Each structure stands twice: as C-alpha cells, then as structure tokens.
Amino acid sequence: MIHSYSSEDKVLLAVDCIIFGFDEEELKILLIKRDFKPERGKWSLMGGFLKKDENLDQAANRILHHLTGINNVYLEQLYNFSKVDRDPVERTLSVSYFALINSAEHNTELTENYSAKWFTLSEAPSLIFDHGKMVKHAISRLRYRASNGPIGFELLPEKFTMRQLQKLYEAILGEKLDKRNFINKINSLDILVKLDEKDMSSSRKGSFLYKFDQQKYKRKIDDGFSFKL
Amino acid sequence: MIHSYSSEDKVLLAVDCIIFGFDEEELKILLIKRDFKPERGKWSLMGGFLKKDENLDQAANRILHHLTGINNVYLEQLYNFSKVDRDPVERTLSVSYFALINSAEHNTELTENYSAKWFTLSEAPSLIFDHGKMVKHAISRLRYRASNGPIGFELLPEKFTMRQLQKLYEAILGEKLDKRNFINKINSLDILVKLDEKDMSSSRKGSFLYKFDQQKYKRKIDDGFSFKL
DNA sequence: CCAAAAGTGTTCGACATACACCCATGA
DNA sequence: TCATGGGTGTATGTCGAACACTTTTGG
Questions:
Q1: Cα–Cα 20 to 30 A to B91, which of A174, A190, B112, B142?
Q2: Where is the Nudix hydrolase domain (chains A, B) (predicted)?
Q3: Which residues lie closer than 8 Å to A157 by C-beta, 6 or more apart?
Q4: pTM reported for the whole predicted model
C-alpha cells in the first residue's frame, strides 16, 4: 500500500458562508467587515480555511460558530469556486455554504459581540473577490429549497403567525402572494399545528400562532408526500 | 500586501466524473478499471487531481479528455466529498462532476482504446471509496436538470426520433410515460424542428427525425419561457 | 395479408388563481 | 365608533392524465 500521492499539487480550501436571516419584512444576509489583509475594511462573507482533520460541514460549522457564536443551524454546501486568481494572495478555492438562522434569536448578540451586520439584499455593499456571485447562487438555491421542502421555518421563531410565514415566502420568492390562497395551500399541506395562543403585537385582534410539526412531516414524507409551494 | 496564508493547511483535491450515456434503451455510466493502487483492479469513476494552474471545470475537462479522448461535452460540478478518511492513502477531497455524452458517437473508440466500460445503473459493480454515493447524487441532479431544461439532447445524436426521446426520458426518470401525452407536451414546448427525413431502422413505416432548435430555445428563454417536463 | 411500430385528439378531474367581505379589538 | 389587521369560501380556467384506433410497409 502506498502512503501518499506525492507528486500532486495541494491547494488551500476556504469555506465561505452566506447567512440568511429574516426580520419580519425582508430577507437579509449577514456580513462582516474584514479586519485583515487583503481588502481590509471591505465587507465580506464569513469565511475561513478548511483544516486537515475536519470535513467541509465541520469547517462551516466551526467558522460560523467562531464568527457569530451560533451553533446548530441549517447549513448546506453549495458550490466550489475555483478560478485560479480569485484570491490575489494565493491560490485558494472556496466552497460556499448557505446558512439559515432565526435572526430574532441572535440579533443583538451578533451585532454587539461580533462586528457583523445585517444587510437587505438590495442594500448590501459590494463584496470582495467572487462573494457577490456566491450570494446570487445562494439565493437561487434558497428559493429552490424553500419551494420544495419545509426549510423556511429555519428562518422563523418556533411559534409564528400565518402572516409572518407569508411575508417570509414573499421575501424569498420575491413576489406578492395572495393571502387566502397562501393559507389554503399551507393548510392543505397539513404540517402545522395551530396553537391556542395568539400573538398580540401586530394587531388589536391578535393572530394565532402556529408551529411546524416535524413528526407529522416526517410521517407524511415516509408515506410518499412531497412538499410543494 | 501579504503573499501567503502560510499557516493554513493545504489539501489534495480530486475531481471525479460521473459519465452518463444512453444506448436506445437504458441509461448507462462509464467506469474504468483501476490499474494503480490502492484498490487496483476495482471499478471506479474517472478521476484525477486538480493542478495548481487550472480551475475545476478545466480539470474535469482535462481528465475526461485524457481518459476517454472526448472533448466538448456537457459537464457540471456537483458536490464536494470531504470525509476525512474517504481516501485511505492520504487526505483527499473530491469534487464530483457529471458529464453527458452521446454514446453512439464514442462507443467503440472508448472501449477499445481506453479500458472503459459502460454499465447500466442496475448492473454496475460496487465502486471504490464514496463513488457509489457520488453516482446516486449525480442521478438525482440529472433528473432535475432533464426535467427543467433541454439537457437530455446531450445524450442523443443530433437527429433523433420522438420514440428515442421518450425512451431517454423514461430511462432518466425511471418511469413509463404515455406516448401521446409525451409527444403533445414536447410539441407544445415548440423547441424541436421536424425534419423531412425518416429513420427506417426501427420499423417498416419509418419514423420522422427531429432536431433540437437551439436558437429558438434561446429566444424563448429570453422571452420568459421556462422548460418543464 | 399480417406483424410491428408510427402517428394522432378528446374527455375528465385536479389543482391553481382570482377575488371581497365580515370579525374582533384597543384606542 | 372607528381604524387596523385577522380570518374565511367560491367560481373559473388551465393543465396534466387517461385512454384506442388507424396507418404504413416489408416480409
């Protein structure tokens, strides 16, 4: 048995995370101001390098935790960006990941303890290297995933109103949806539980809160059900 | 300006290609018998290592050409497989690519000059490392792409019959399709040209040949059209 | 004349879309 | 009492699914 592929080239492998959040109205991404060279002072995605004793998912989790204090969020590998001169310092490939976080839960902590900032998609500054391309790619994957699986709930608090859910989907899909049709469709999926509780913050009448029913969803999936929105 | 990220780990990056072909009846993948260690003599995907002066798409094209003599085919990056001990020799990550080739055009050349062999999906031998996982992933991507874009034509000769096209889609999707519904749907897309020519090899009556009209398709796309099958 | 594949339309049901009014409440 | 957002059902059109017979021609 041989012990190395000794004549082959090795490369640096970065991991960059596109972190999505939702603030009741708009879809946002979390960026940090770089405090190191090159491009110090410019805005960038959260990133870091793969270490030799971890896989990419682990690296993405580690980087996310290190830069934001956050753990246990939805993370998904997207694409490997490999243009030879994409990083001016040294040949580096970057694997992009997208993350979904419930920003209500983490907002203040984030912006105070770490120098991260939320930007709406339209207000986001231009990013270093090919990070802009990564964001575009991530948005299109997010749309796909949100339309084909119950992934949107990752961006909401555990309990949420129908209106919040609708606003979220409108933000993800970039289009207005009809209130009645949306609710009918969601109800026909039969994967939410309506709670006895109301959220009173948005109106005088108050609106019922719902929870995503993970167990029920899994049972339905095993039964051939497929989520489509 | 700094000139290296000197303290970071570097890794070997492989590229492995899942090559799909179609032989009038079944979807196949092209494998080679490894003539080097480790796992010499076992079947594997076509693979090689990324070199420092090329990007991943270039590497995939180079590897494909080197191992099969084929150039200019549809290639798409899929996923980074990064488990720490996936390759027993040395830490290696692998980026999988899937390729679509018109096997009629390349068949004999391939199996004679190179030690490659076509396998139907059900007859394929078990593969080294995590190559089996890569194939599964590639099939699901192929299904998605073929359902949402005119990518199936990459697997057919330039001129083809409706029946061939239907068989191809049946093979990709893994289900029988209704002849009339299929033809109606394809015709309603309005992206094929019917030729005056018939293919006489499959029946006494002969069946008309069609070509995919790239120009027309592009015009329709620019016009907001979206391919769905 | 017969076997074997090619070609061709219509009906029916399901699902998506469009659309407007009453309700409950706090101020 | 009124302003604000919450909640609810129906009618219509579109698209996908099921389905069977005639045509051609080489042997």
A1: B142
A2: 12-142
A3: A102, A104, A105
A4: 0.95
